Amino acid sequence: MIPAVRAVARAAMAARPVPLAEVQARAELLARYSSTYLVPVEVFAAFAAELTDRRRPGGPFAVLCINGRRWFRYHSFYYDTPDLRSFHDHRQRSRLRYKIRERLYADTGERQFEIKLKGRHGETVKHRQPLMPGAAALGDAPRGFLASVLDRTYGIQAPTQLGRSIETDYQRTTFVADGQRVTCDAALLCRDLETGRTVRADGGLVLVDTKTCGRLTEADRLLTGYGLQAAEFTKYCAGLSALRPHLYANHWQGAVRTAFPAAAV
């Protein structure tokens, strides 16, 4: 078993399980501040033990559990224009940047069409709409939804030429406390849908995202205490940079090298 997968599974089994409804009630966080950390498995084990410690003031973090499962497979397709407008807007830190993806929750079969963009104060805001089985991700309804979100948020038109850029696959466990959510991803695989090339993340790293309506969480403080700093890393931008080395990785180049050491960046 991949070390990161083993570490995440052990942490999940040590926590109190809670249903999806409780996670949404305590920390749905469709608008949130988030930070990403590339955490070695040894550090992750200690970090997760502190999060789920029953002696923690305010109570331990709980773990999302659905139908007895505490970790889940996520499969996503990212959409971009032929000239990779979304990628380059993120590379240049454009104020009006956004990502478009289709997400499949592989264990339940649920599909979502999602748009992630930046709010006025730098927070990440996610808009999503369910996709029915067999429905086209870029059919009339999703395109209308995309156009509406971009118009009312940024006052811009949606791109007309969109296609699948890369796909990602990974395992996720979610820990939650009041107003805080920590997602822990392992076994990340990215595939370039233009070339067919694939890259896998370092099996000794857990990708930890801290999410809250505030600027700093307890999880951030714990990870900082272990000597870790938040990384310039998103699965789409880092994955595409690793898959296509000719693209200028810019400010996330160091994180790409750490996450995908086998890729020629």
From TrEMBL:
Q: Which domain of life is it from?
A: Bacteria
One Pfam match, given by its short name, reads VTC
**Any idea where the VTC domain is?**
63-243
Q: What is this protein called?
A: VTC domain-containing protein
Q: Which organism is it from?
A: Streptomyces albospinus
Lineage summary:
Bacteria, Bacillati, Actinomycetota, Actinomycetes, Kitasatosporales
